[in-house]
Structure formats: structure tokens, C-alpha cells
Design the sequence.
């Protein structure tokens, strides 16, 4: 899609969309191809898979920490009674 076509789907300015596209391109999440005067952006799904894998690892850590917090809060609540 072109930046203009992408911007139509969001309630932010085209300039803001362009900034996001530059960042996503720099992170190699998007690939850009120029055809004449138009620039087309395409999502690189393989990069998203790597991000999803990283998030799964983080989620496991977060869940363990929240479980520990639940135990601590439950203990404190019980001790106050």
C-alpha cells in the first residue's frame, strides 16, 4: 500500500503515518518498493514471527511475576484479618 492508502485507515495525519512507516522500515518490519513516483510498503511477516516469539518469552516472565505478586498480596490480606 502507499502511505496515503495506509493513512486513510487511521485518524492521524499523513505526516504521522509517514513517521511510523520510516520507523517500521528502519526496523525491517516493512519493505518499501518504489514504482515511478509511488512508494509501496509491504509487511515482512517473518519479522513479526520473531517479535511474537520474543513476546511469548516476556509473557511467561510477566505471568510468573504476577503470580508471585498475587501470593504476596493474598498473604498480606490474610495477615490483616
Sequence:
Amino acid at each position: 500500500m502507499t502511505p496515503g492508502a495506509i493513512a486513510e485507515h487511521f485518524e492521524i495525519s499523513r505526516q504521522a503515518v509517514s513517521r511510523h512507516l520510516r520507523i517500521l522500515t528502519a526496523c525491517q518490519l516493512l519493505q518499501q518498493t518504489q514504482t515511478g513516483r509511488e512508494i509501496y510498503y509491504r509487511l515482512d511477516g517473518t519479522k513479526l514471527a520473531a517479535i511474537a516469539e520474543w513476546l511469548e518469552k516476556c509473557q511467561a516472565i510477566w505471568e510468573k511475576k504476577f503470580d508471585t505478586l498475587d501470593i504476596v498480596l493474598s498473604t498480606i490480606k490474610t495477615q490483616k484479618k
Remarks:
- The chain has a mean pLDDT of 92.
- The helical segments are 3-7, 14-26, 45-80.
